Amino acid sequence: MKDAFGAPQSLLVLGGTSEIALATARRLIALRTRRVWLAGRPSPALESAAAELRGRGADVRTVDFDALDSASHEVVLGKVFAEGDVDVVLMAFGVPGDQARDEEEPMAAVRVAQTNYTGAVSAGLVCAGALQAQGHGSLVVLSSVAGERARRADFIYGSSKAGLDAFAQGLGDALQGTGVQVLIVRPGFVRTRHTAGLPEQPFATGPEEVATAIVTGLRRRSETVWVPGALRVVMAALRHVPRPLFRRLPV
């Protein structure tokens, strides 16, 4: 449950090495979050992330979680919820893919879709059911502006995020009145290790800015946040640009 200061006391991160997720965890720990589960594939990076958060005063545990192994999600995540209530679940796993390669190798494209969409549907439904059973909590879904409209440059990744975003919207509607909040986060270009070396896009941000938006959205019980906020207006306009013209835009 949230404490008297309105901050969540427990956090489950799906995608435990995500730079955005870890930046969010640091901010929540500073606001009195005391128990954190970092779920991801076993790796030195996952253990290092856990150690760093422990150094900030949190009780941190790692959980073996594979987004592609949907058959295991109910058991793996069920064990986490069996340890006690979870106030916030942050779904931060995903892969950007490589558009040129993925067009040439369909199975690589399928992997992007299965990770970003199918895995998220599976894990999202398991967590939503557990949150509903405990009667409270927030599910934060890390989406992307890339899902707002398919672009030639990244339509495979963008389509996976479009599916995830639509799923999260519907799930949020289904959970109305249950005490469970679904917060959809739509960042633009974020400077992370996954985007290192890529040309920087307009409205670029960093993990810290996204983390700030997530914490603010949780406090306000928002349904959707854009990072930066100006992208809400930009994408509202781009959604209505005719396709022949949209193809020629440098976006």
Automatic annotation (TrEMBL):
GO terms for molecular function: oxidoreductase activity. The keyword Protein biosynthesis does not apply. Gene3D superfamilies: NAD(P)-binding Rossmann-like Domain. It is an enzyme of class 1 (oxidoreductase). Pfam families: adh_short. The keyword Manganese does not apply. InterPro entries: NAD(P)-bd_dom_sf, Sc_DH/Rdtase_CS, SDR_fam. Keywords: Oxidoreductase. Its EC number is 1.1.1.333. Belongs to the short-chain dehydrogenases/reductases (SDR) family. This is Decaprenylphospho-beta-D-erythro-pentofuranosid-2-ulose 2-reductase. It comes from Streptomyces globisporus.
